[in-house]
């Protein structure tokens, strides 16, 4: 029975207000019934008003965190989130290239939901060159998919074309998340291109709220949890979409402005 409980891992930054980053991942892991571990790449000082300071972890410390998890635990799936610079990205690549942690979901934290660039040019290219080819799934948001594909994504045909372009960068499966910063839209529609060539659209109603911090983290970490439990990629993605939608829809009153989503939500909530 040693090490038989389902275990997962996030390699990401720490958000002090608990709304995003590794904290959102760990809350999602617990909500989905798996044991979550974390390798911290950075730490952010912030609250619901914004981010006010940040610091990167030394690469030797990142290496030691990963080594200690490799030496003891049986991780079935993992994700990466914020990887701040080329050195950190390269360090993580070297540590995981022998596939020690099962399924790899890459949340490419490149551009915010409002279109602001988060990575310098060198780090952006390092992420594509080194980590994309290792990923079982990437989950770019609308703006990240625009940047990565070089397309404007003005219609479904362009989104489909973008997904095929992203496949050529190396990841096995692609999930392009729909645009959701425009209050005029009625639903958020994502496009998924699977490794075997099958594809599908998946949508949920748009929720007008400022409590959306950590939605991308929650979606990707829920996929990780479901893959670790044995779901197929398609089913894991669909489960994660529903869980994240319910976590947004059923607000939790925390913070003054841009608050977290609700990880206490249950599957049977409609």
From TrEMBL:
A GO molecular-function annotation: phosphomethylpyrimidine kinase activity
The reaction(s) this protein catalyses: 4-amino-2-methyl-5-(phosphooxymethyl)pyrimidine + ATP = 4-amino-2-methyl-5-(diphosphooxymethyl)pyrimidine + ADP; 4-amino-5-hydroxymethyl-2-methylpyrimidine + ATP = 4-amino-2-methyl-5-(phosphooxymethyl)pyrimidine + ADP + H(+)
Transmembrane stretches, start-end: none
Enzyme class, first EC level, given as a word: transferase
Pfam families per the UniProt record, alphabetical: Phos_pyr_kin
Domain Pyridoxamine kinase/Phosphomethylpyrimidine kinase: 15-262
Keyword terms, alphabetized: ATP-binding, Kinase, Nucleotide-binding, Thiamine biosynthesis, Transferase
CDD domains, A to Z: HMPP_kinase
EC numbers, comma separated: 2.7.1.49, 2.7.4.7
Cross-referenced InterPro entries: HMP/HMP-P_kinase_dom, PM/HMP-P_kinase-1, Ribokinase-like
GO biological process: thiamine biosynthetic process
Annotated metabolic or biological route of this protein: Cofactor biosynthesis; thiamine diphosphate biosynthesis; 4-amino-2-methyl-5-diphosphomethylpyrimidine from 5-amino-1-(5-phospho-D-ribosyl)imidazole: step 2/3; Cofactor biosynthesis; thiamine diphosphate biosynthesis; 4-amino-2-methyl-5-diphosphomethylpyrimidine from 5-amino-1-(5-phospho-D-ribosyl)imidazole: step 3/3
Entry's Gene Ontology cellular component terms: cytosol
Similarity-based family: Belongs to the ThiD family.
Protein name: Hydroxymethylpyrimidine/phosphomethylpyrimidine kinase
